[in-house]
Amino acid sequence: MTCRSCGGVASGLVCAYCGALQGQISHADDEQRAVEEFHAILARTTGADARLRLLQSGFVPTHPAPLIDAALRCVPLLDNTMTADSPVASATYARLQILAAKLRVIATTPEVKRALAELAPHLAKQRNAQLWAGFTNVVIGLGIALVFGCAGIIWLAGALQ
Ligand SMILES: [Zn+2]
Predict the structure, then answer these.
(1) How many CB atoms lie within 10 A of CB 40?
(2) pLDDT digits over 51-100, tens only?
(3) Ligand 1 centre and the CA of 141: distance in Å?
(4) What is the reported pTM?
(5) Are 79 and 144 within one domain?
Protein backbone atom coordinates (compact mmCIF):
# COMPACT_ATOMS: atom_id res chain seq x y z
CA MET A 1 0.00 0.00 0.00
CA THR A 2 1.26 3.47 -0.85
CA CYS A 3 0.86 6.30 1.68
CA ARG A 4 -1.68 8.86 0.47
CA SER A 5 0.26 11.66 2.09
CA CYS A 6 3.98 11.02 1.42
CA GLY A 7 3.96 8.22 -1.18
CA GLY A 8 6.00 5.91 1.04
CA VAL A 9 5.21 2.26 1.70
CA ALA A 10 2.56 1.99 4.43
CA SER A 11 1.57 -1.36 5.90
CA GLY A 12 -0.68 -0.54 8.86
CA LEU A 13 -3.33 2.02 9.76
CA VAL A 14 -0.69 4.73 10.05
CA CYS A 15 2.25 5.54 7.76
CA ALA A 16 5.50 4.78 9.63
CA TYR A 17 7.26 7.57 7.74
CA CYS A 18 4.91 10.56 8.04
CA GLY A 19 2.25 9.41 10.54
CA ALA A 20 -0.65 9.98 8.13
CA LEU A 21 -3.79 7.90 8.52
CA GLN A 22 -4.28 5.29 5.79
CA GLY A 23 -7.74 4.70 4.41
CA GLN A 24 -11.05 5.88 5.75
CA ILE A 25 -11.67 5.34 9.45
CA SER A 26 -15.24 5.76 10.65
CA HIS A 27 -15.24 3.95 14.00
CA ALA A 28 -13.74 5.31 17.21
CA ASP A 29 -12.27 1.86 17.95
CA ASP A 30 -10.32 1.85 14.68
CA GLU A 31 -9.13 5.35 15.35
CA GLN A 32 -8.01 4.30 18.82
CA ARG A 33 -5.98 1.46 17.27
CA ALA A 34 -4.46 4.01 14.88
CA VAL A 35 -3.46 6.24 17.83
CA GLU A 36 -1.81 3.25 19.50
CA GLU A 37 -0.02 2.37 16.25
CA PHE A 38 1.15 5.98 15.81
CA HIS A 39 2.65 6.05 19.30
CA ALA A 40 4.26 2.62 18.82
CA ILE A 41 5.93 4.00 15.66
CA LEU A 42 6.97 7.14 17.54
CA ALA A 43 8.40 5.05 20.40
CA ARG A 44 10.63 2.98 18.09
CA THR A 45 11.72 6.01 16.04
CA THR A 46 14.91 7.42 17.52
CA GLY A 47 16.26 9.91 14.97
CA ALA A 48 15.39 13.54 15.76
CA ASP A 49 14.47 14.31 12.12
CA ALA A 50 12.19 11.27 11.84
CA ARG A 51 10.51 12.06 15.17
CA LEU A 52 10.06 15.66 14.11
CA ARG A 53 8.39 14.58 10.85
CA LEU A 54 6.02 12.20 12.66
CA LEU A 55 5.07 14.82 15.26
CA GLN A 56 4.52 17.52 12.66
CA SER A 57 2.50 15.52 10.14
CA GLY A 58 1.01 12.84 12.41
CA PHE A 59 -2.76 12.40 12.08
CA VAL A 60 -5.14 14.09 14.50
CA PRO A 61 -8.10 11.91 15.62
CA THR A 62 -11.66 13.12 15.25
CA HIS A 63 -13.47 10.94 17.81
CA PRO A 64 -13.40 12.26 21.41
CA ALA A 65 -11.91 9.16 23.13
CA PRO A 66 -8.95 8.66 20.72
CA LEU A 67 -8.41 12.43 20.69
CA ILE A 68 -8.15 12.50 24.50
CA ASP A 69 -5.81 9.50 24.40
CA ALA A 70 -3.61 11.08 21.72
CA ALA A 71 -3.33 14.30 23.75
CA LEU A 72 -2.55 12.54 27.04
CA ARG A 73 0.11 10.42 25.32
CA CYS A 74 1.93 13.64 24.33
CA VAL A 75 2.41 14.68 27.98
CA PRO A 76 5.14 12.12 28.91
CA LEU A 77 6.84 12.84 25.55
CA LEU A 78 6.94 16.51 26.50
CA ASP A 79 8.32 15.77 29.96
CA ASN A 80 10.98 13.46 28.52
CA THR A 81 12.41 15.92 26.02
CA MET A 82 15.67 17.34 27.27
CA THR A 83 15.41 21.05 26.54
CA ALA A 84 12.36 23.20 26.03
CA ASP A 85 13.70 24.92 22.91
CA SER A 86 14.71 21.76 21.02
CA PRO A 87 12.85 21.23 17.71
CA VAL A 88 11.39 17.91 18.93
CA ALA A 89 10.06 19.53 22.13
CA SER A 90 8.56 22.37 20.08
CA ALA A 91 6.93 19.89 17.68
CA THR A 92 5.52 17.85 20.59
CA TYR A 93 4.18 21.03 22.17
CA ALA A 94 2.70 22.13 18.82
CA ARG A 95 0.98 18.74 18.41
CA LEU A 96 -0.41 18.91 21.94
CA GLN A 97 -1.70 22.44 21.25
CA ILE A 98 -3.51 21.22 18.11
CA LEU A 99 -5.03 18.25 19.97
CA ALA A 100 -6.08 20.49 22.89
CA ALA A 101 -7.60 23.06 20.50
CA LYS A 102 -9.66 20.32 18.86
CA LEU A 103 -10.73 19.05 22.30
CA ARG A 104 -11.85 22.57 23.26
CA VAL A 105 -14.14 22.65 20.21
CA ILE A 106 -15.89 19.48 21.34
CA ALA A 107 -15.65 20.20 25.09
CA THR A 108 -19.21 19.16 25.80
CA THR A 109 -18.74 15.92 27.71
CA PRO A 110 -17.31 15.63 31.25
CA GLU A 111 -14.57 13.31 29.89
CA VAL A 112 -13.29 15.97 27.49
CA LYS A 113 -13.49 18.70 30.14
CA ARG A 114 -11.57 16.50 32.58
CA ALA A 115 -8.89 15.77 29.97
CA LEU A 116 -8.52 19.49 29.21
CA ALA A 117 -8.18 20.26 32.92
CA GLU A 118 -5.50 17.59 33.13
CA LEU A 119 -3.63 19.02 30.10
CA ALA A 120 -3.80 22.67 31.23
CA PRO A 121 -0.83 22.65 33.68
CA HIS A 122 1.37 20.77 31.17
CA LEU A 123 0.55 23.27 28.43
CA ALA A 124 1.23 26.18 30.81
CA LYS A 125 4.52 24.63 31.98
CA GLN A 126 5.70 24.16 28.40
CA ARG A 127 4.63 27.68 27.43
CA ASN A 128 6.65 29.09 30.35
CA ALA A 129 9.63 26.86 29.52
CA GLN A 130 9.62 28.12 25.91
CA LEU A 131 9.33 31.74 27.07
CA TRP A 132 12.20 31.19 29.50
CA ALA A 133 14.32 29.53 26.78
CA GLY A 134 13.65 32.51 24.49
CA PHE A 135 14.54 34.93 27.30
CA THR A 136 17.78 33.02 28.04
CA ASN A 137 18.77 33.20 24.36
CA VAL A 138 18.21 36.96 24.36
CA VAL A 139 20.32 37.37 27.54
CA ILE A 140 23.14 35.24 26.06
CA GLY A 141 22.93 37.26 22.82
CA LEU A 142 23.14 40.54 24.74
CA GLY A 143 26.05 39.18 26.82
CA ILE A 144 28.00 38.27 23.67
CA ALA A 145 27.22 41.68 22.13
CA LEU A 146 28.44 43.38 25.33
CA VAL A 147 31.71 41.43 25.39
CA PHE A 148 32.43 42.22 21.73
CA GLY A 149 31.36 45.84 22.25
CA CYS A 150 33.77 46.23 25.19
CA ALA A 151 36.56 44.49 23.27
CA GLY A 152 35.95 46.90 20.39
CA ILE A 153 36.11 49.95 22.67
CA ILE A 154 39.32 48.68 24.32
CA TRP A 155 40.84 48.02 20.89
CA LEU A 156 39.76 51.47 19.66
CA ALA A 157 41.16 53.16 22.79
CA GLY A 158 44.45 51.33 22.24
CA ALA A 159 44.53 52.26 18.54
CA LEU A 160 43.92 55.97 19.29
CA GLN A 161 46.80 56.30 21.76
ZN1 LIG B 1 3.33 8.72 4.70
Answers:
(1) 13
(2) 999 999 999 999 999 999 999 999 988 876 656 568 888 899 999 999 99
(3) 39
(4) 0.78
(5) yes
**What gap in Å lies between CA 49 and CA 46, rounded to an integer?**
9
To the nearest 10°, report the CA torsion of 67, 69, 75, 80. Answer: -120
How remote is the CA of residue 98 from the centroid of ligand 1, in Å?
Answer: 20
Ligand 1 centroid, distance to 76 Cα (angstroms): 25
Dihedral (CA of 121, 123, 127, 130) sign: positive
Distance 124 CA to ligand 1 centre (A): 31
Q: How far is the C-alpha of 75 from the C-alpha of 6, rounded, in Å?
A: 27
Per-residue pLDDT reduced to its tens digit, 20-65:
999 888 899 999 999 999 999 999 998 889 999 999 999 999 999 9
Distance of CA 85 from the midpoint of ligand 1 (Å): 26
Distance 35 CA to ligand 1 centre (A): 15
Report if residue 137 sits inside a domain.
yes
Q: How far is the CA of 16 from the centre of ligand 1 (A)?
A: 7
Q: Are residues 32 and 77 in the same domain?
A: no
User: Domain range holding 90?
Assistant: 60-160
